[in-house]
């Protein structure tokens, strides 16, 4: 039982929650974005991060502080909050990232946790091993054991009120991620970052990102707050939230700005090549791309501000979408921004059955916005429920809105992508769905699957299907014993 994390709302596997951070005396609403503050190079003052951007929590690197003589003593003396000028919650990383980049660091988990406590961190991190993607299994397992020893050292350490991260590693082996998640959830640690994702995200491998997260989530408990370490590009936040991630950290806003890059919800643009700013944040409202190019001294900071504005804007949009039950429609829109995002969305839908477990039974009208919509969890759930419906001996299921006189025992509606249902259920979620008049083969195939499930559950019923010129691929899914009529050919 983790009483520091409370889930308020769900949509798919996404949730709005509250993470209590006792040492900071604050509660942070999730999904939350933690801007990364480099203690040596402050791009935007932390006080502004809170006041102008709404950041409730930030993340900085205790290892950099520990190994930089110039600031270490000052931070020890003043405390991290005073040093940074930030009175929200502060998470600190441990140097694991440096370990992954340079192969070696000179602190142990016990030492760096003690240091994090002394500088006043609110959420501290042990020295996990971020195993990169695509390594052989033997290495992934060996390094995971090292990470698990670090978690044991963290459990044994005297950490007071600080929350402690329990990173979940396992490289590109979803079953190792699951095992790592289960092990981490069995510790008494508090926050669960899915680690070593940066190389995958830099390579736009969003399907692999989803598989790693879903693997970790299978092992973790539902009430574990999950952090996607190193994720902060606004394009992928909706997808990651829908997969069940609660915390994100963005270094991208500052790193990208340094290279003249401008983030949007559908990708990254180069200031050099832009004629217009498509955004209305304070930076974009007050400047044109040409003006920014003429002010090289200010451009980096202004780009960083824009990058952070769009990222927080997207996070608010995601939270609103969860409240309205429209998160998957938002993910669908984001999936159109880049083919790699579409891969990520398709990978997420491979797990529709898991998404269904936390998906509310009723929400705002389902919109069918792409053929991926046919694979949403609501469709699966409808199919699962078909076997519970009472079915007469002779049943017509038809797309025709006004069936003429007939001699069936009952006439049901047939609505792609859901399939058959009694008219009495027409006004219940998700069957109130808005679907295009011109359905596609994916929606028809999903509806045909519904027919198949209904027939399978009622072998004694004689079912007739009236469809409006469905694709052959969909009709092929309807069992042979069903009578099939094409309404278009019957002129109805
Ligand atoms: N920052 C980005 N990825 C990681 C990770 O896997 N572990 C830690 N500790 N920090 C990270
Ligand atoms: Zn802007």
How does this model look, in words?
The chain has 492 residues and is an alpha/beta fold. The protein has 2 domains: 5-352, TIM Barrel, CATH 3.20.20; 365-491, no CATH class. It has helices at 46-51, 62-66, 69-78, 80-84, 96-102, 109-119, 137-156, 174-185, 198-202, 206-219, 234-242, 252-258, 282-286, 289-293, 296-324, 327-335, 339-349, 352-358, 377-386, 441-457, 472-475, 487-490; strands spanning 5-11, 14-21, 26-30, 32-37, 57-61, 89-93, 123-124, 163-164, 192-194, 226-228, 247-250, 261-264, 267-270, 394-398, 410-415, 419-422, 462-467, 483-486. Strand 1 and strand 2 form a beta hairpin. Helix 8 (174-185) runs parallel beside helix 10 and helix 12 runs antiparallel to helix 15. The chain starts with a strand and ends with a helix. The structure holds guanine (GUN) and zinc ion.
Arithmetic mean pLDDT: 96
Kindly identify the CATH topology of the largest domain: TIM Barrel
Q: Strand arrangement, largest sheet? A: 6-5-4-11-10-9
- Helical residue percent? 40-55%
Distinct small molecules bound, one entry per kind: guanine, zinc ion
End-to-end distance, in Å?
Answer: 59 Å
Number of strands: 18
Compile the SSE list and pairings:
Blueprint: E1 5-11, E2 14-21, E3 26-30, E4 32-37, H1 46-51, E5 57-61, H2 62-66, H3 69-78, H4 80-84, E6 89-93, H5 96-102, H6 109-119, E7 123-124, H7 137-156, E8 163-164, H8 174-185, E9 192-194, H9 198-202, H10 206-219, E10 226-228, H11 234-242, E11 247-250, H12 252-258, E12 261-264, E13 267-270, H13 282-286, H14 289-293, H15 296-324, H16 327-335, H17 339-349, H18 352-358, H19 377-386, E14 394-398, E15 410-415, E16 419-422, H20 441-457, E17 462-467, H21 472-475, E18 483-486, H22 487-490
């Amino acid at each position: 039982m983790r009483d520091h994390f409370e889930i308020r709302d769900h949509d798919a596997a996404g949730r709005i929650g509250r993470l209590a951070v006792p040492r900071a005396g604050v509660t942070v609403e999730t999904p939350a974005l933690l801007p990364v503050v480099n203690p040596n190079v402050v791009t935007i003052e932390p006080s502004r991060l809170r006041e102008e951007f709404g950041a409730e929590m930030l993340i900085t690197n205790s290892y950099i502080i520990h190994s930089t003589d110039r600031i270490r003593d000052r931070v020890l003396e003043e405390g991290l909050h005073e040093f940074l000028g930030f009175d929200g919650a502060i998470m600190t990383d441990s140097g694991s990232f440096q370990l992954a980049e340079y192969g070696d660091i000179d602190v142990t988990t016990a030492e760096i946790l003690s240091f994090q406590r002394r500088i006043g961190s609110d959420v501290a991190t042990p020295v996990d091993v971020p195993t990169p993607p695509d390594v052989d299994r033997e290495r992934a397992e060996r390094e995971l054991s090292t990470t698990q020893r670090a978690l044991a050292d963290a459990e044994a350490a005297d950490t007071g009120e600080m929350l402690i991260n329990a990173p979940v590693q396992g490289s590109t082996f979803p079953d190792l991620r699951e095992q790592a998640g289960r092990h981490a959830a069995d510790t008494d640690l508090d926050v669960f970052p899915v680690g070593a994702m940066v190389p995958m995200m830099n390579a736009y491998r969003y399907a692999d990102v989803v598989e790693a997260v879903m693997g970790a989530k299978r092992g973790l408990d539902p009430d574990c707050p999950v952090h996607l370490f190193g994720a902060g590009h606004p394009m992928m936040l909706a997808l990651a939230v829908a997969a069940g991630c609660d915390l994100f950290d963005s270094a991208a806003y500052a790193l990208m700005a340094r290279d003249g890059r401008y983030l949007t919800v559908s990708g990254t643009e180069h200031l050099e090549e832009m004629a217009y700013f498509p955004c209305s944040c304070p930076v974009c409202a007050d400047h044109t791309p040409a003006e920014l190019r003429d002010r090289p001294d200010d451009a980096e900071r202004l780009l960083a501000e824009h990058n952070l504005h769009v990222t927080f804007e997207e996070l608010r949009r995601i939270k609103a979408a969860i409240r309205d039950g429209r998160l998957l429609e938002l993910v669908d829109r984001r999936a159109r921004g880049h083919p790699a995002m579409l891969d990520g969305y398709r990978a997420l839908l491979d797990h529709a059955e898991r998404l269904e477990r936390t998906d509310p039974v009723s929400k705002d009208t389902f919109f069918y916005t792409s053929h991926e919509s046919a694979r949403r969890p609501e469709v699966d759930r409808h199919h699962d429920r078909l076997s519970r419906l009472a079915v007469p001996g002779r049943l017509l299921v038809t797309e025709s809105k006004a069936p003429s006189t007939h001699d069936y025992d009952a006439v049901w509606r047939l609505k792609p992508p859901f399939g058959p249902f009694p008219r009495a259920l027409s006004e219940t979620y998700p069957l109130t769905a808005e679907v295009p008049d011109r359905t596609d083969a994916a929606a028809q195939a999903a509806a045909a699957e519904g027919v198949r499930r209904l027939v399978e559950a009622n072998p004694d019923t004689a079912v007739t299907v009236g469809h409006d010129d469905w694709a052959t691929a969909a009709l092929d899914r309807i069992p042979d014993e069903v009578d099939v009529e094409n309404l278009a050919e019957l002129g109805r």
